[in-house]
Amino acid sequence: MDILPAIDIKDGNVVRLVQGDFSRATEYSSDAAGVAKYFADCGAQWLHIVDLDGARTGQAHHLSTIETIAKSTHAKLQVSGGVRDYHHITDLLNAGAQRIVIGTAALCNEHWVHDVVFKYGSKIVISADARDEFVAAEAWSVQTSVHILAFVRTHQDVERIIYTDIRSDGTLHGPNFEMINRLLPLVPHLFVAGGISTLEEIRKLKSMGVEGCIIGTAFYEGRLDPKVVLNASQPL
């Protein structure tokens, strides 16, 4: 199972939010490239980079930082945050991203997303972010009436989908295993984010058939040791 450390960037700093609330941001570093190199040196093969400012505005804010990270580490980059047009996708790929995550646009511009998936294939990942089973958009500030299962069914041409339980995100309270079980039959390669904080939870996700998990707060708060979790020579 792939384990991706999350590097969320806001105003140039590495931060973590609680349940997507920008007013509850904790800053951990002003050196995103240094954080990325640390995780890569611990064994991370992929990094999950989130442009939080881009998620709110729908425009790229940290392309230069992403480019610096790509040049300073061997890890591959999966990048998220406000991707809503071809220009943004091209800029991210040129900056060094290997996979691009689309969230709000997958909800608001379904036909465009299908065209993007047709053009870029496995480089495109869909983010399915749900609060109480219903999809949220615009950096989770807009709650919709779209059920997450219906949302996922409309994007079954996508190879990978990331499921985030917003209620769990940043809380260290564990992932939403019940919803994960419901999503697994619908998604060829399911990634999970939100609340993961123990090795036991990671092992359970792996046994369920989850392809990857994204971990942020548990690493930054010392609940999980990146050198243990990311070391491929040490089976979990």
Plain-language structure description:
It is a single chain. The protein has 236 residues and is an alpha/beta fold. The chain has a single domain, classed as Aldolase class I (TIM Barrel). Helices cover 36% and strands 31% of the residues. It is built from 11 helices and 12 strands. α3 (63-72) packs parallel to α4. It is globular.
Query: What's the arrangement of strands in the largest beta sheet?
Result: 1-4-5-6-7-10-11-12
Query: In DSSP terms, counting alpha (H) and pi (I) runs of 4 or more, how many helices?
Result: 11
Mean pLDDT: 94
Characterize the overall form: globular
CATH class: Alpha Beta
Question: What is the CATH architecture annotation?
Answer: Alpha-Beta Barrel
Q: What is the helix/strand order?
A: EEEHEHHEHEHHEEEHEHEHEHH
Helix content: 25-40%
- Largest pleated sheet: 8 strands, parallel, barrel
Structural class designation: alpha/beta
Spans of at least 5 consecutive residues with low confidence: none
Number of strands: 12
Distance between the terminal alpha carbons, to the nearest Å? 10 Å
Taking all Cα atoms into account, the compactness measure Rg is 16 Å
Portion in beta strands: 25-35%
